[in-house]
Amino acid sequence: MKPIDLIEHPEGGRYREVFRSAHTVSKDDGTSRFALTHIYFSLNPEEVSRFHKVTSDEIWNLYQGEGIHLFLWDETDTPPQCVTLSARENRFCHVVPAGTWQAAEPISETVLLGCSVAPGFEFSDFTLMAYESQAAEKLVSLAPELAGHIGKKLF
Predict the structure, then answer these.
(1) Domain extents in the chain
(2) Alpha-carbon torsion 99, 100, 105, 106, what sign?
(3) For residue 28, what are the contacts with CB-CB under 8 A and spacing of at least 6?
(4) Where exactly are the transmembrane stretches of this chain (predicted)?
(5) Residue 152 to residues 25, 103, 148: CA-CA distances in angstroms?
(6) Which pLDDT score is estimated for 142?
(7) Which burial class, exposed, middle or buried, applies to 24 when counting CB atoms under 10 A from its CB (0-12, 13-18, 19+)?
(8) Cα–Cα distance measured from residue 63 to residue 94, given in angstroms and rounded to the nearest whole number
(9) CATH class assigned to 7-141
(10) What is the pLDDT of residues 31-45, one digit of tens each?
């Protein structure tokens, strides 16, 4: 069964929140967040999740489809790491540490994923890499093949 009522996500793809914890936690900066959130997330072939980061740890889970390539970058002089989630790799989930740039693309067919964030996700904790930013310039110099995984150029 495929989830219904998915809506467009700013990073690309579509999503629907399916869980928001009733419990809250306090972050180091004193803000309160739900303890955990979880979404369904879908990408079609040739579609990408553009580079973004969140201020909490995030776990990607593969549910349906051949799999994804998940690109992780810590904004150093080292090129992004590629983690493949797929049955062939026998890897179905991966933890992205808080503050890590991340992007994804399906291996081939449409994929259905789950993303759990703790402390829970809020869009105020979400940063999409700007096309004309220093981070984007550095990323493209290290991995030019990932230029299409950066937010759209602002006009």
Answers:
(1) 7-141
(2) negative
(3) none
(4) none
(5) 34, 14, 9
(6) 97
(7) exposed
(8) 13
(9) mainly beta
(10) 999 999 999 999 999
